[in-house]
Amino acid sequence: MFRIETGVDKERSALLLAHLQDSNNAASPVIRAMRGTVEEREVPLAVWVLGRTDDLIGGLAGHTWGRWLHVNHLWVSEDHQGAGLGTRLLGEAERIAREERGCLNSRVETWDFQAPGFYRGQGYDVVSVIPDYPQGAKEFTLTKRLT
Fold this sequence. Notes:
Layout: H1 10-27, H2 29-34, E1 43-50, E2 56-65, E3 68-76, H3 85-100, E4 105-111, H4 116-121, E5 125-131, E6 138-145
Parallel strand pairs: 3-4
Antiparallel strand pairs: 1-2, 2-3, 4-6, 5-6
């Protein structure tokens, strides 16, 4: 007999993750080979554009994992858009990921009202589109080879 419960529980969440990792290790030689290596850890990566008074003009926040760069957030203030800062932020993040962390690929998710065209212009390819995520918008996943 079993029961279903709801609610956030840190101990159960940790146990859930441990069980999932054990299952993944058993099922995938690729994941199993990553265990205990630098590739296994998500390592934060951030690049900033600051103004004369250290005000934030733009930035990129992401992480590397499994020899991939994952771009979580990229933003440039409206006053500075069109000056190439997004390209410079993304290029520096890709350079760090490739040269310093051995990444081979990059990925990003963006909505249709954000920047899919920008990423395509930077050499990214659309690999999926999720309609109505959220309702009325499309989410794009794009990837790029860094080598």
